[in-house]
Amino acid sequence: MQDFYGSGFRSRRYTGDTLAQDLDTLEVAMARETVKYIAVRDHLQRRLEGMSAGEQIPTEPTLCKEYNVSRITVRRAVDDLIQSGLLERVQGRGTFVTEPQYTEQIHETFTERVTGFHRQQAELGREVVTEVLANEVTRVAGVAESLGLNPADELIELERLRYINGTLHQHVVTYLPAQRYPAVLAHDFSEGSLFEFLEAAYGVVLTRNDLLVRLDTVDESRAECLGIAEGDNVLAVDSTVFTSDGAPVAFGVATHTPQYSQLAFTLQNRGTFS
User: In angstroms, rounded to a whole number, what is the distance separating the alpha carbons of residues 166 and 146?
Assistant: First the structure.
C-alpha cells in the first residue's frame, strides 16, 4: 500500500503491515458495536499525528476502501476532525491537516509560586522562542502607580513576541521598576524566562499573579506585530505579579493572536472547608 500519511503514530511510518495491523484492531472495535464513524474518526486522528500541517489526507473514496465503510461514515468522521480544528476542507482541492492549536494552560497554584509563560510552556515540552522588540527605560504614570511607585518614576519596558514550536502565539509588554531591577536592561531575553532571571539575579520569588482577561482592540503597532488588521478584537491578559510579602514586581499585558485566543484555568483548593 502506498505510504500517504507519514507516521500514524509518533514513533513509526505507516507501512502496509503497520496500517493493516491497525485496521485489524479497528475492525475488532467496530465488531464490538462501537459506532463506526467514531472508530474511524479516532483511528484517523491517530494517523494525523504524524502528518505535517498543510499535508493532504486521502480522498473520501480512498478512505472508504481502506476502512471498508460508506462515504457517509467517512464524511462524518472527517467532519468531526474539522470541527475539532485538526483538518480543513478546501473547496475544489481536498482536505488538509491544519496548524496545531496550542491552548495556554495555566496550572499555577498562586499561593506557592508563579511559574510564568516561558517555564510553563517549556515544561509542557514545547519549544519557546522569544523575539525581543524593546528593552528600554520609559515612564508610564498609570503603570508606575499600579506598582506602588511615584507616577514620574522610571520603568523598564520589555516588549517581546513569543513563539511556540515556530508559531507566533502572543505579543507581551512587561514593565518593571528601573531603579529596583537595573540588570534587566543588560540581559538578553531572547532565551530564558524573565521570572527565572529575577529569581537568580535578585532573589525574587513570585507567589501571586493577579490576572484580568479582557477583549481589546489592537492599535497599529500591535497589529503589525501580530499580522492582523488595526482595530481587530483580540484577547488580552493583564498580569501583575507579587512577592510573598505583597510587593508588586511587574505589570504586563499579553495580547494573543486570534487563532490562539483561548485560555484554560485550573483552580485547585489547597485547604478544607469547615
Answer: 34
